[in-house]
Amino acid sequence: MSELAWTDRPDLDRPVMIIALQGLFDAANAATDAIRRLGEQHRSERFASIDPEHFFDFTQERPIVRFDDDGRRVIDWPENQIAAAHVPSSNDLVLLAGVEPHLRWRTFCGHLLEVVKGLGVEMVVTLGAMAGMAPHTRPLGVVGSATSPELATRLGLGRPSYQGPTGVVGALHDQLDRAEVPVISLRVSVPHYVPGPPNPEATRSLLARLELVTGVPTDHELLDQAAHDWRSRVDAAVADDDDMRSYVEQLERQVDEADDILPSGDDLAAQLQAFLREQNPE
Fold first, then answer.
1. In the chain, what is the greatest distance between 2 CA atoms, to the nearest angstrom?
2. Within the chain, where are the H helices?
3. Beta carbons of 123 and 47 less than 8 angstroms apart
4. Are the beta carbons of 16 and 208 closer than 8 angstroms?
5. Distances (CA, A) of 151 to 120, 144, 145, 259, 276
6. Contact 147/154 with Cβ under 8 angstroms?
7. Which of 41, 49, 53, 115 would bridge with 81, disulfide CB 3.0–4.6 Å?
8. For residue range 28-77, what is the model confidence (pLDDT) as tens digits?
9. Taking the mean position of all CA atoms in its chain, how far away is CA 66?
10. How far is CA 163 from CA 22, 60, 166, 170, in A?
11. What is the pTM of this model?
């Protein structure tokens, strides 16, 4: 019996799959929060799941015991459930906001590739968040890269350049690239001195860039007030510490002197759609 269990096979229009996994590359839960918001916005419905039994060390990612609304005792296991959403006037979505497994990464990625192939997914976008040298007083920068040289050039994205220890997302990019599935990575930098969740500013930055690049509506502006409130709370904490205030000012100077990481422009989504049509003329 396959560890990938389908409860339905949704009929989707030119779907794009968006993936984020809790773990090393989801600082402040910013990436998985972004996908959960997308799922709520577009009323996604779950259609498949990956059995956690052979992918997790439960001494590291422990299941949670709780009581449900009827007073019954239940256990919540680490969850990797995949959902789909229809999006008017845009590509439909396949969404995974899950948990990075500990074991059998190649097999896990193979299950995701099966979903990609089974639903005719045209492109995969992975979202991530990492603690970095970002001041909380500035819009949090998003680094974008694409495995395809042509796609990277069209969208003004970088090419993957990292060398060193990687996670499941790195292994997934490799499998998708070998299967000739276009992949884009978007990663937001979270202030390392404010690492805890939630971080609505980081989530908003990811959603805004995702919408800019793909054209998929994300309602990121709904996080404006929450991001403002988060920044105000951090401002108040920093104001009481002279050393921290000086450090933040140093980070501000570095960011203000740097160029924007991703280009802006209304034609990015059009460039992406043109690329996808060329890959799949039908």
1. 61
2. 30-41, 105-119, 149-155, 168-178, 200-214, 224-239, 242-257, 268-279
3. no
4. no
5. 19, 11, 9, 21, 9
6. no
7. 49
8. 999 999 999 999 999 999 999 999 999 999 999 999 999 998 899 999 99
9. 28
10. 21, 26, 8, 10
11. 0.87
